[in-house]
Design brief:
The complex is a heterodimer of chains A (about 270) and B (about 250).
Chain A (H helix, E strand, L loop, with lengths): L20 H21 L4 H17 L9 H32 L7 H16 L2 H12 L3 H25 L3 H8 L5 H35 L7 H10 L3 H28 L2
Chain B lengths: L1 E8 L8 E8 L4 E5 L6 H8 L7 E6 L2 E2 L5 H8 L2 E4 L11 H6 L8 H5 L5 H13 L15 H14 L4 E5 L7 H18 L2 E5 L3 H7 L2 E6 L2 E6 L6 H8 L5 H5 L2
Helix pairs in contact in B: 5-6, 6-7
The chains are: A mainly alpha (about 270), B alpha/beta (about 250).
C-alpha cells in the first residue's frame, strides 16, 4: 500500500503576468498618472467649441436634407472618376503585388530577391497615401492619373505583404509532393502554392477594392481627382447639403461593395 | 535498378542522420524500411530524389548518378521516382484529376499545365489509373472531399502517373485504419508487380512490413543493421533494430 499522501491544497490562483507585485502596481499607477497629465496638456478652447457647435449641427442636419440635384452632374462625374481610379488601381496593384509577394516569401525566394521585395513593401507601407498623392500630383499634374498611381502603389504594399505571409504559412507537404514529380519552379508555384493562397488573395483584393474606393474620396483633397475633389469643393463653398449627398453616396457604394465581396468570399472556400 | 553507395547525410551540428548506407534494390522488388523514429528512414528516401541533399555518397538509378545532376537533370530524374506520402500531400483545393495529372508536370510544358491542357495520352492514362485504384468517376471531386483511404489512392495514382521506375513511399498507412492500411499496401504491392516497379516503403508497422514486403531493411541511427527476407526477421533482429522489447506478438504474425 502506498502511504497516505499529504492533503492537496484547495486554493489555487492563476500566476500573475508580472510576477513582482511592486512592479505591477507601479506600472499601473504610472500609466494612470501619465494619462491624466496628458489630457491636461491638450488645450480645449471651450469658447471655440461653443461657437463651433451650431456649425457642426448644420453639417449634421444637412444629412436629413441632402441635396443630390443642384450639383448632380458634378457628383456623378466625381463618382465615375473615383470608381474608374479604384478599379484600375486595384487590378494593377494586385497584378504587381503577386510577383512582389512571391519574392517576399522567405520560403520561396533567395535572400537578395527577398530583401528587394521586402524593402519595396516597407516603402509602400510607410508612405501614407496623401504624401504619395502629393508627390504624384507634383509629378503628373492634377487629376485621376495621380490618384490611380497612388492607389496602385499603396495596394502593392498592402497585398504583397499579406500574401507573402500567407505563402510563408502554406502546408509544406504538397510543396514536397509537386517538387518530387519533376515540376519546374513555375509549375510548382502554380500547382502547390497558388491553390493554397487563392482564397486569401481574392479576399484581400476585394477588401483592397473597398479601401481604395474610400481612399479615393480623400485623395481628391490634394488634387488627385475623383469624388474627393467634388467633396472638397462642396465643403469649400459651405454647401453642406451637397457634401452630405456626396458622403451618403460614398457610404452606399461602400456598403454595396462590402455585401458583394461577402457573397463572393463565401462562395470561394 | 537502384544502387546506393555510402549514402550519408549530416544536418548541422548533430549526429549523422545517415551514416553511409549501401543498398541495392532490383526492379520489381518491394523493400520495407523499418526502424525507430529518428533512425533516418525519412531522410534516406528523401536523399534518393534529393528533396534532401545528401552530404556524401552516390545514388544511381538505372545508370544515372542522381547526386551529380544539374537542376534540369534532377527534374528529369525525379520523373522516374514516384513519391507517396504519409498525409497524402494532395493539393486539397484541386480536383482529383488535377492531382493525378500533376504526376505529369515533369513531362509537359508550363502553359499546358497552367491551362490544364494535358496531352490526350496523359488524360487517357489518368482515367485508366483512376479506374485501377478504384476511383473511377471521382475525377471532378475536390481532393478535400475524399476519405483518407481515397486520398491515398489519389496519391498513389499521382505517383504511378509519372511512369516511374521506382516508388518512394513514406509511411503510407500511418494515418489510416488497419483495414484500409492493408488495402493500400496491397494496392502498392500489386501495382509494383504489374509494372515491374521497385519500391522502398518506410513503415512503422512491422506486421504489415512482414506481410507485404519481399525484403526488409532495418535502420538504426542512420545505419543498416538488418537486411533480409521477412522470415529472417527474428526477435533478435528486431532487438538489434529497435532495442530490447517483447517481440512475441510481432514475430508470431509471420
Amino acid at each position: 500500500m502506498t502511504p497516505e499522501p499529504a492533503a492537496a491544497p484547495s486554493v489555487w490562483r492563476k500566476p500573475a503576468f508580472i510576477a513582482s507585485a511592486w512592479v505591477r502596481w507601479a506600472l499601473g499607477i504610472g500609466a494612470l498618472v501619465y494619462l491624466v497629465s496628458a489630457l491636461g496638456s491638450i488645450d480645449i478652447a471651450w469658447g471655440r467649441v461653443a461657437a463651433g457647435l451650431p456649425r457642426g449641427w448644420r453639417f449634421v442636419a444637412s444629412f436629413l436634407a441632402p441635396d443630390f440635384l443642384s450639383r448632380g452632374d458634378e457628383i456623378v462625374d466625381g463618382l465615375t472618376e473615383s470608381i474608374a481610379m479604384t478599379a484600375t488601381a486595384t487590378v494593377l496593384g494586385v497584378g504587381l503585388a503577386v510577383p512582389v509577394g512571391l519574392g517576399a516569401a522567405r520560403n520561396l525566394s533567395p535572400r537578395p530577391i527577398y530583401l528587394v521585395c521586402r524593402s519595396l513593401i516597407a516603402t509602400s507601407r510607410t508612405l501614407q497615401e496623401l504624401i504619395v498623392a502629393i508627390f504624384f500630383v507634383k509629378m503628373f499634374g492634377f487629376g485621376p492619373f495621380a490618384g490611380m498611381l497612388t492607389l496602385t502603389f499603396a495596394s502593392i504594399g498592402f497585398i504583397a505583404k499579406l500574401i507573402a505571409e500567407r505563402i510563408e504559412s502554406v502546408d509544406t507537404a504538397p510543396l514536397e509532393a509537386i517538387r518530387s514529380t519533376g515540376a519546374s519552379w513555375l509549375q510548382w508555384v502554380n500547382y502547390a502554392i497558388q491553390p493554397q493562397i487563392l482564397p486569401r488573395l481574392v479576399g484581400l483584393s476585394l477588401y483592397r477594392l473597398d479601401i481604395n474606393f474610400r481612399e479615393s474620396a480623400v485623395l481628391g483633397i490634394v488634387g488627385a481627382g475623383g469624388i474627393g475633389a467634388t467633396l472638397n469643393t462642396a465643403l469649400g463653398r459651405y454647401e453642406y447639403d451637397t457634401a452630405a449627398a456626396i458622403l451618403l453616396s460614398i457610404i452606399l457604394i461602400v456598403l454595396v461593395a462590402e455585401y458583394t465581396s461577402g457573397l463572393i468570399r463565401a462562395r470561394l472556400k | 535498378m537502384l544502387r546506393l553507395t555510402g549514402l550519408a547525410k549530416r544536418y548541422d551540428r548533430s549526429d549523422p542522420a545517415l551514416a553511409g548506407v549501401d543498398l541495392t534494390v532490383p526492379d520489381g522488388e518491394v523493400v520495407a524500411l523499418i526502424g525507430p523514429s529518428g533512425a533516418g528512414k525519412s531522410t534516406l528516401i528523401r536523399c534518393i530524389n534529393r528533396l534532401v541533399e545528401p552530404t556524401s555518397g552516390s545514388v544511381v538509378l538505372d545508370g544515372v548518378d542522381i547526386a551529380g545532376l544539374s537542376a534540369s537533370g534532377l527534374r528529369a530524374a525525379r520523373r522516374r521516382m514516384g513519391m507517396i506520402f504519409q498525409e497524402y500531400a494532395l493539393i486539397e483545393r484541386l480536383t482529383v484529376m488535377e492531382n493525378v495529372l500533376s504526376g505529369r508536370l515533369g513531362y509537359v510544358g508550363f502553359w499546358a499545365s497552367w491551362f490544364r491542357r494535358f496531352p490526350p495520352e496523359d488524360v487517357r492514362r489518368a482515367f485508366d489509373i483512376l479506374d485501377r485504384v478504384g476511383l473511377a468517376g471521382f475525377e471532378n471531386k475536390r481532393a478535400d472531399a475524399l476519405s483518407g483511404g481515397q486520398r491515398q489512392r489519389v496519391g498513389i495514382a499521382r505517383a504511378v502517373m509519372q511512369a516511374p521506375a521506382l516508388l518512394l513511399v513514406d509511411e503510407p498507412t500511418a494515418s489510416l485504419d488497419p483495414r484500409t492500411s492493408r488495402q493500400i499496401m496491397q494496392l502498392i504491392v500489386d501495382l509494383c508487380a504489374e509494372r515491374g516497379l521497385a519500391a522502398i516503403v518506410n513503415i512503422h508497422d512491422v506486421a504489415l512490413a512482414r506481410h507485404f514486403a519481399h525484403r526488409i531493411v532495418g535502420l538504426r541511427k542512420g545505419a543498416v543493421v538488418f537486411d533480409g527476407p521477412p522470415q529472417a526477421l527474428t526477435a533478435e533482429a528486431l532487438t538489434a533494430i529497435y532495442g530490447a522489447g517483447d517481440w512475441a506478438a510481432a514475430t508470431d504474425d509471420a
